[in-house]
Amino acid sequence: MEKDTDRLGLLLHDATRAVRKRFEQRTSHLGLSTAQWRLLAQLSREPRATQARLADLLDIEPISVSRLIDRMEQGGWVRREADPCDRRARLVAPTDKTKAAYATIKTIADEVYDEALEGIPADRRRELVAMLRTIVTNLNDAEAEPRVPCIKANG
């Protein structure tokens, strides 16, 4: 007998893929890849992050993040800054171009989510989001905790 959760992984994957595909269709005119959109979305949550942190958040290899950031820096989407807490590290920060585009991204994402959730009452939508947050919380490991900001003392 099949349990209700037997297809959970496939359903989550299929739903994510369908949303991503629709989002890509609606944003193709902006000329950014999915990896670039994901990086910009992470920078909207955490406006200054090291390349290592971004690699972890995006679940891709550090060298791939480095190349991705190189391309985005050349396009004026991000800039690298010195990390005040670690002279060896560089922080990646969004530019004004990214901040302006993010409003467009957010609007398109909201439209895609509304389309995806069509026919589901508002209270059930809230339940779904709460349940997905619980899944993420249950499965996230301690390494995924946000970086504690460095506060430099004066003098």
TrEMBL record:
Q: Does the keyword Hydrolase apply?
A: no
Keywords of the record, alphabetical order, are:
DNA-binding, Transcription, Transcription regulation
Residue span(s) of domain HTH marR-type: 5-137
One MF term in GO for this entry? DNA binding
**Recorded superkingdom:** Bacteria
**Family annotation (InterPro entries):** HTH_MarR-typ, WH-like_DNA-bd_sf, WH_DNA-bd_sf
Q: Which segments cross the bilayer?
A: none
This chain belongs to the protein called MarR family transcriptional regulator
The organism is: Cereibacter sphaeroides
Taxonomy of the source species: Bacteria, Pseudomonadati, Pseudomonadota, Alphaproteobacteria, Rhodobacterales
